[in-house]
Write a structure and sequence with these properties.
Blueprint: H1 9-17, H2 19-24, H3 31-57, H4 82-111, H5 117-142, H6 147-170, E1 179-180, H7 184-210, H8 227-254, H9 259-284, H10 289-311, E2 314-315, H11 326-334
Antiparallel strand pairs: 1-2
Helix pairs in contact: 3-4, 3-6, 3-10, 4-5, 5-6, 6-7, 6-10, 7-8, 7-10, 8-9, 9-10
Amino acid sequence: MVCVPNVTRADAISAVRNPLAFIAGRWTPTSRTVRRAALAALVMAVVIVVTGGAVRLTGSGLGCPTWPKCTDDSLTATSAMGFHGAIEFGNRMLTYVLCAAVGWAIIAARSQKPWRRSLTRLGWAQFWIVMSNAILGGVVVLVGLNPYTVAAHFLLSTALITVAALMWQRTREGDAEARPLVGKSVQQLVWFLVAAAVLLIAVGTVVTGAGPHAGDSSEVDRMHVGWENVAKLHAVLAWIVVTLTFALWFVLKAVDAPKGPLHRTRDLFLVLLAQGVIGYVQYFTDLPEALVGLHMLGSCLVWIAVLRVLLSLRERPDVVADLPGPSAESALTRA
């Protein structure tokens, strides 16, 4: 049998005052565990976007007509609310799963030895984004799915994915000063790619806000722009992103760049190709719900792929402590 150490009164007080430090003093996760925790938070950030899209595409956006309760009289969905109530309330419950994943990432980062404060900060940044987006989600319901608040809700989810992807990448790196792997001209090209991807995602929210999927079967206000014209602008931006990606790959080959940036650029191109096929098929088939949902998933994967290209342009080796040289060692021995 394994002996369980007694928890003293001082331990209990310490756990209440600073639970993260208390756990860190008694658990040291492996680097692999920390990476998995960060990846779990990233995966859940994508999942919550996809399930949020399912709420919209099934017309369940007002399945729970109020917030923070599901109805004025019930905290949870009732059987009388049917399918739409179950879908909307289920998505709300997934927020707790997301919080658990982010919490695990924070605890793992805080307990790692040596403690990397930068990782913990990225974990807490995710937590506060989740809390902010949960409140914004409630506002979305209270204002009857106003399309501008819905767009902001999606963009804040994209911000969460950004921080989660950055934390996942940082768990695979050291804490030394970042060293660029490519020249400034290549870095500038990648920043143009990032800017174009941001515009692509932002315009995509306008397409959704003006399109036919309002999020609920009731009368919901839409963005008063021609969604087909905005969809064409969205397609033009997509082609710009594809062109910049293609150009980046050729430039990286020309300057004999390391394999990391080349592989990440190739991955981005493949994701863009799949996303483009889905986008054109859904446009010419009158936006079927299943394809729109896949397109939302693709949007998350495209953004993650863009971030991975950006982050692959530098490396962060582990910090190596200065060790005494042979002469210093001999001097210490003589002393």
